[in-house]
Design a protein that fits this description.
Organism: Chania multitudinisentens RB-25
Radius of gyration: 20 Å
Order of helices and strands: EEEEEHEHEHEHEEHHEHEH
Keywords: GTP-binding, Hydrolase, Metal-binding, Nickel, Nucleotide-binding, Zinc
Structural class: alpha/beta
Number of helices: 8
Distance between the termini: 32 Å
Strand order of the largest sheet: 1-8-7-9-6-10-11-12
Pfam family, one: cobW
GO molecular function, one term: GTP binding
Oligomer: single chain
Protein name: Hydrogenase maturation factor HypB
CATH architecture of one domain: 3-Layer(aba) Sandwich
Length: about 300
């Protein structure tokens, strides 16, 4: 279940399974009541680290009714300034925080388990995140063509439906497993765990995770990866890092793809980098074109450094 939008993961399927499985994990929310009807709200802080971990700290204080922030002159509405940082109809901020805490604590436990296994085998795991259509699969297929005869590689592909992307990866000769999330908008640590056990992962290898196209929910879910790599293309607008700050704050590296199209679009690479560093001053940046090959050497050098 997604803590941001509440989408279900009960329709997930992983290639090789012959059933539409339901997660074994059922989350039981626990209600905690204050004394004699005392209202409680919870202050909530996200701390993003470059390895993808998200830690949450909670402290209870007196509650205030939630209402969206309204800009005085424009009447614009902002639903992200509540204690939970999000809104769901009919669910209070305290309840949203409880759900998020329950879901993420379980996910983070599984992610730590994944990370231990990957570290034991010295597997570099990268979680590629982006909007749909930014070119993740094209970048992966081009990258694998460079790397496949130099280092063992494998790929976990995430999409709501179809195995199209996994088939594109397998056409390069690299093993891949498709994870379909159904209504889900992101991969979680359980899905990566299940998929990883179906791959022939080798010691001293490289595992790419191509997450579902979405710049919101995947920011909160640690999969056990070493780095999140955020990809955007020059056709998307240079202000994406400001519009979706949580993702770019959680990423170690931002790749600006499709630079071969720069002569045809209104996009400032410099401004995009400035916006990204307003959100994450330490974020590294590479510009490239997976289609023309321009800048691919920088990406390959970055991979070698990891």
């Amino acid at each position: 279940m997604c803590t941001t939008c509440g989408c279900a993961s009960g329709e997930k399927t992983i290639e090789g399974d012959d059933y539409h499985g339901h997660d074994n994990d059922h989350h039981h929310a626990h209600h905690h009541h204050g004394h004699a009807g005392q209202a409680i709200t919870i202050h909530h802080h996200h701390h993003y680290y470059h390895q993808g971990d998200v830690h949450h700290h909670y402290a209870s204080v007196e509650a205030l009714p939630f209402a969206p922030e309204v800009q005085q002159h424009s009447q614009d509405l902002h639903y992200g300034h509540g204690a939970a940082g999000s809104h769901a109809p009919g669910i209070g901020q305290r309840r949203l925080l409880q759900i998020e805490q329950d879901v993420l604590s379980k996910n983070n436990h599984l992610a730590a388990h994944n990370r231990e296994h990957f570290a034991a085998q010295n597997i570099l795991v990268l979680n590629l995140v982006s909007s749909p259509g930014s070119g993740k699969t094209s970048l992966l297929t081009t990258t694998l063509q460079y790397l496949a005869d130099k280092v063992p590689c494998a790929v976990i592909e995430g999409d709501q439906q179809t195995s199209n992307d996994a088939e594109r990866i397998r056409a390069t000769g690299v093993p891949a497993i498709q994870v379909n999330t159904g209504k889900g908008c992101h991969l979680d640590a359980q899905m990566v765990h299940d998929a990883a056990h179906r791959l022939p992962l080798q010691d001293n290898s490289l595992l790419f995770i191509e997450n579902v196209g979405n710049l919101v929910c995947p920011a909160s879910f640690d999969l056990g990866e070493r780095h999140k790599v955020a990809l955007l293309s020059v056709t998307e607008g240079e202000d994406k890092p400001l519009k979706y700050p949580h993702m770019f704050a959680a990423a170690t590296l931002m790749i600006i793809n499709k630079i071969d199209l720069l002569p045809y679009v209104d996009f400032s690479v410099e401004q995009c980098i400035n916006y990204a560093r307003q959100v994450n001053p330490a974020i590294q940046v590479i510009t490239l074109s997976a289609t023309s090959g321009e800048g691919m050497d920088l990406w390959l050098d970055w991979l070698e450094e990891q």
